[in-house]
Amino acid sequence: MIRILLAEDQLLVRQGLKMMIEMDEEMRVTGEAANGQEAVALCERNTFELVIMDIRMPEMNGLEAARRIRERCPDSKILMLTTFNDDQYALEALKLGANGYLLKDAEPEALIRSIRSCLAGGLSLQDNVAAKVIPRLLKSSEEKQVDASITPRELSIVRKVGEGRSNREIADELSLSIGTVKNHISQIMDKLDLRDRTQLAIYAIRHNVV
Question: Which residues contact 110 (CB under 8 A, 6 or more apart)?
């Protein structure tokens, strides 16, 4: 069972999202929070595979909550779900370590796909969000060279991460085991002093790897 924490300050919206998510038999909302502070506290006391987080919430907003959850509960994936199609919000969320950014007007099927993509280690961005975010990342990519310590094999993996591929997809496309892919990614992040896979994906875009 995939345990999900749902952080959303509007009760009706939260209930509707819960119903949509639990239509998938493998997913259960095992925690609910009405603000970022509650979300952080729940993550510290319980185990969740995924946190679905609104941005605008009382007490503590979703961006600050995502930062704290990433620091204190690094194994939990984070999917930002918001009404704001704002490239600055999306960039900030990704820099803080969010694994995806989806708008609330997305279809139920898109929500389930985004959840599965985040859990598989991918980077999930709604198309119209990606259309705003990626050009901003590319603007800062001129004349940035990839670290010389990155090997050709590692570079191919960085490229796949930047394209949003999961570990399974990378393994299949490069004829490697999932364990080997995970080891490579850990070594790459150590070399580049990156915190997580999301930062690695951003690195790939900024350095013209993808």
Answer: 102, 126
